[in-house]
Amino acid sequence: MKLQSDPHSGANTITGYGNGYVEINKAPYSHAVLISSDGAISEWPVREFAALESEHFAQMVALNPELIIIGTGNKQHFPKPELLKPLISAKIGFEIMNSQAACRTYNILIGEGRQVLLALIVEAE
């Protein structure tokens, strides 16, 4: 699915997504990524939801976002509460949803000028 982006915003924008890929600023990625609204796009070493560990959440906290959106792949999954401790301790808000909903929500929030980090698991069906 293609998404419309605001070319004047200067923020990293999700421009498309589908089975096995996400398109950021019109460039395709086939692996999990951390996408900051105003910074880098980096590979996130998570291949599937079951592989999430506390250091993955600590990596998000180190980027100091206002809000984190976690896209858990094709289906919405909720991490074990102990994995979320780094986010809670840092008092960073977070939302957990499937990756397609996470992409849409991220674009809406950056359109509002929010300081958002998208942690996105990209998986094939």
Task: Write a structural description.
The protein has helices spanning 54-61, 85-89, 99-111, and strands at residues 14-18, 21-24, 27-29, 33-36, 41-43, 67-71, 93-97, 116-120. The chain is 21% helix and 27% strand. It has a single domain (14-120), classed as Hypothetical Protein Mth938, Chain: A (3-Layer(aba) Sandwich), CATH 3.40.1230. The strands form two sheets. Strands 5-4-8-6-7 form a five-stranded mixed sheet, with helices on one face. Strands 1-2-3 form a three-stranded antiparallel sheet, covered by helices on one side. It is an alpha/beta fold.
Question: Short description, anyone?
Answer:
The protein is an alpha/beta fold.
Summarize the helices and strands and which ones pair or pack.
Elements: E1 14-18, E2 21-24, E3 27-29, E4 33-36, E5 41-43, H1 54-61, E6 67-71, H2 85-89, E7 93-97, H3 99-111, E8 116-120
Question: Which descriptors apply to this entry?
Answer:
3 helices, alpha/beta, Hypothetical Protein Mth938, Chain: A, 125 residues, single chain, 5-stranded mixed sheet, 3-stranded antiparallel sheet
Helix amount, in percent? 10-25%
CATH topology name: Hypothetical Protein Mth938, Chain: A
Distance between the termini: 15 Å
Number of separate helices: 3
Q: What is the spatial order of strands in the main beta sheet? A: 5-4-8-6-7
Mean pLDDT rating? 90
CATH architecture: 3-Layer(aba) Sandwich
